[in-house]
Amino acid sequence: MPASRTLATAARVLRQLRHDPRTIALLLIIPSLMIILLRYVFDGSPAVFNSIGASLLGIFPLITMFLVSSIATLRERTSGTLERLLAMPLGKGDLIGGYALAFGALAVLQSLIATGISVWLLDLNVVGSPWLLLLVALLDALLGTALGLFVSAFAASEFQAVQFMPAVIFPQLLLCGLFTPRDSMQPVLRWISDVLPMSYAVDAMTQVLHHPDATATFAKDTGIVAAIALLVLILGAATLPRRTP
Amino acid sequence: MVNYDPNPTGNSTSPGHDTTSGPQGGPAVTARSLTVVRGDRQVLKALDFTVPRARITGLLGPSGCGKSTLMRAIVGTQAKVTGTLTVLGAPAGTPALRERIGYVTQDPSIYQDLTVRQNLDYFAAVLNPGRAHRAARAEAVTRAITDVDLTSHADDLAGRLSGGQLSRVSLAVALLGTPELLVLDEPTVGLDPVLRRDLWNLFHTIAATRGTTLLVSSHVMDEAERCHRLLLLREGVLLAEDTPDDLRTRTATETVEQAFLHLVDEAAHPETSG
After folding, report:
1. What φ, ψ does residue A237 adopt, rounded to 5°?
2. In this structure, which of A40, A184, A240, B16 has its CB flanked by the most CB atoms within 10 Å?
3. Where is the signal peptide (chain A) (predicted)?
4. Which chain A residue shows the shortest CA-CA distance from B37?
5. Does residue B28 sit in helix, strand or coil?
């Protein structure tokens, strides 16, 4: 019964978090606080808040889940629990799937709060359905979890793992079209932004912002984000060694 | 430092007279010219030995002699193993062996941010998943906690336990699935004498009543006296494979520690190897 091992792993990850209420509070509250901050930074130009705010709703889950999952799996690697689990009848897919489920659930909660506050309290003007925003946020969270899991294989300590955040996330943040449209970038940078997953996450959010229904572009963008998340999760599974070298 | 009792549970099998074949078929572990390379160093050099079933075999040797590597090879988590290594009738590392072997690493491999019971609940769910086995799992968890004498700490966060308690939680995880072979890497390091005695009593009970084979490593030679059989390892080479009694008799020494030193000198003199 492989599914129940995945569920047991997800339940265990959430149980660990429950013993750490401060982390949960930070995860759930900080994105909303940042959106509120942004709203009043752009008090005089609501149009700017509108476009950046929607993009950020997709970027927050990516960043937070990246951080949480890279540290969590690094701990699993260094504490010996990974070695123990892999000496047991646990599939790598069960472990990765368990993490993705647990952090995905957390991301849904995080995005519900942030999206709710943005749409109803801060008058973020979304033409499309807020549920589509939520869907993109969830896919972004999975992408963040996948990247975090993968990157933790290359970090020997928490210090290194945290440094991967600027290394992996910041370039994507600069190139994803948040600050300036991707079309107006220097062509080489534009090409690079074409292969970075966050670009598609932001594009998908922009589609929801401007179109009442899910457009073909939206479907393509979310499909790409989901596919990259899946690919990186599989790559992440490959970095879990059953054998000590 | 402790008064030894090589056979504390008083089971009828005398550790002095032992055969390498157990009750069910061949030995639990058979190694033939087992070699392990890590980096460019040969950590284990052409080892030949057997581990009999339902007995406690001590794997002794100084720190860094290859004990943990040998244990990982048996459990199937060591890369670059050559030679033949048969564990419970199958080649080491066969996936089907994973649920038949319990393995405790040197460091307590448990989640510090879960309680003792939550740790065991999770590992039990990995070993025996599914809603249908919930009752069996709860029973196994309770028994494992009782085995290692942590009932009063069952709902404490593992991170708040002492080092000795932590390693007992780790041991409890290995006891969960009623494994046929228990591989314990230095389980008594850093424990006080009373706890060490209690753990050794537990090992003997498990071997005698559940028919479990135990392979226990230690770098403390006085623990050797508590084992049925010994494997003495030094710098990746097997110095001796014997019962504690026969080892002392053969080397005309009083303790296993003296026997070990005797064998080291003996090995060093004829060929002055480094």
Report:
1. -60, -35
2. A240
3. none
4. A245
5. coil
Q: Encode pLDDT of B75-128 as tens digits.
A: 998 989 999 999 999 999 898 898 899 999 888 899 999 999 999 999 999 998
Q: State the DSSP H helix or E strand holding residue A64, giving kind and residue range, or none if neither.
A: helix A46-78
| Residues A138/A130, Cβ–Cβ less than 8 Å | no
Q: Strand pairing of B237-242 and B213-218?
A: unpaired
Q: In chain A, which residues have their Cβ closer than 8 Å to the Cβ of B107?
A: 79-80
CB B264 within 8 A of CB B234: yes
ipTM for the complex? 0.88
Integer-rounded Cα Rg, in Å, for chain B is 19
Say which residue the tokens 């040969």 belong to.
B42
d(CA B80, CA A226): 37
- CA dihedral (A16, A17, A21, A22) in degrees, to 10, reads 120
pTM: 0.84
DSSP category for residue B78: B
- Could you tell me the two tokens for B62? 């100084």
pLDDT digits (tens, 9 = 90+) for B15-29: 433 444 444 568 999
Cβ <8 Å between B130 and A1 = yes
